Amino acid sequence: MEQRNPRVQADRCCLQQGSLDKSNHLIVTDMTHNYYFFRTVKVGGRQRLRPLPGQKEPSGRHIDEGLNVQADSRMREDYPLGTVFGSESLELRSLHSTTFYSAGAIYPIGLNLGDYHSQSHMPSAGMNEAYDSYKADLEDKARPVLSGESTLFTESGNAANPGTLLSQIKADRKMNAPTIEDEGFHIADKDWYLLVRNIKSKVNTMMVGPSGTGKTELVLLACRKLGLECNVYDMGSMYDPVSGLLGVHRLQKGGESVFDYAKFTQDIQKPGVILLDELSRAPVTTNNILFPCLDSRRMLPVEMAGGDELRSIPVHPDCVFVATANVGAEYTGTMSLDRALVGRFFPLELDYMPLECEVQVLTKRCGIMPADAENIASVAGTVRSLYGKQEISCTISTRETLAAARLVADGWSSLEAMELTFLPLFEGTRTEGERGMVAKIFMTR
To answer: What would the pLDDT profile of 157-169 be if each residue is shown by its tens digit?
Structure first.
C-alpha cells in the first residue's frame, strides 16, 4: 500500500484484474477505491466527465485526467457544467480501441444544500471529507518545494519544475480561467493561461479572430485578475496616428509653439497593459510609429518635438502591448497587416465558443429561457457554418446573439428578435438573396 499524505484516506484500495472478452474486445480493470472525483467539462462542443488531477491507481500510476468517464448521464445533466462528482468505484475499460473509465454511482460534491435536486443526490459525509482531503493534498503538492526536494506536483499529475510560470499561474486561484457561472464568459483554459503567461512575461500578444468573440473583454478581464491598469486605444478610429500616438504642436499666447504630447506617450512609461484594439483597422502609417516600441529598442521616437523637449521616450520595463485584430473580407475598413508588425507579436487565435457554451452565456447574461437561447445560438451557428463554407458573405457574431437575447429579455419573441437583429446584416429580401437564406434558417427552429 502506498503511503501518501495521512489526510487522504482515498488511497486505500485494492486492484482486481479483469479478462479479455473476445466477442467485443472489452478489457476491464476493476479498481475498488474508496472515492474518485470527476468534473463535467466541454470537449468538442459536448459535455464530458473527466477525472480531477492528481489521483492514482492502486499501482501508483496516475489516473489519466484526459480520458472520458462513463457515468449516470441524467445526474450529470441535472447540474451545471463544472460540477464536481464523487464515486466509490472506477473501472478502466477499452472497447474497440477506445479507452475510457466507467464510474459507479456519482454524487455532486461541494454544493449548497438548496442546490441539490434530491436528498438521494447528496454525497455521504465520508465522501465530502475525502474530497476536502484531496483538495488539501493537491494544494500542498502545488506549493513551492522545500529544500532537498526537486519536483512539483502539477495539475497533470506529473512531476514538473517548481519554478515554471505555468505551474505558478495554475496554483494561484485568482488566476483561474473565467467561467460562465461566475463571469458569464467562456474561453478554453489553454488560451486563457497563454494570455496570462504572456502578460506576466511582458510578451506582446496579438489576439486574432472574428469580430464579437470577446477579445477585448478577455484582455480587460485578465488585467483585472492580475491587478494591472489597462489603457485601451481604439485603433480603428485613429485616423491620424501621429497626433493620436505622439502629439501635436499647439500655439500658445504670444505665438509660441509648444509640443503637446499624446496620452500614449505617458501610458507607455507606466507598468500595465496597452491594448491596441482593432489594430487591423489602423492606417498603415501606424506601423512605423509602433515598431520601435514593440521590438528590442523599447522606445518611442518623437522627432517632431522641438527645442529641448523629449524626443525619445522609453517604454517602461513592465509595460506590455496586446493587440486585437479581426480577420476576413467582411470586415470593411480593415488593413492588410504588415508582416513585420505581426512578427513583433505572439499570435493567439480565438474563435466562436461551442454552441452549448453560447447558450449558457446568453442565458446567464440576459436572463432568458434556455430554449430561446438555443434558438438564437443555433441559427448563428448555422450561419457561421455557411460562412465557413463560403456559401454566404457575412456571419453572425456573439455580439449580435447577445443583442438578440436582450430583445427577448425585454419581451420580444426569439423569432422577432432574430429578425430585427440578424436580417439587417444581409443583402436581399426576405425571400431572395442571403437575407432570404437566413430567413429560411429561422423557420427551421
So the answer is: 444 455 688 888 8
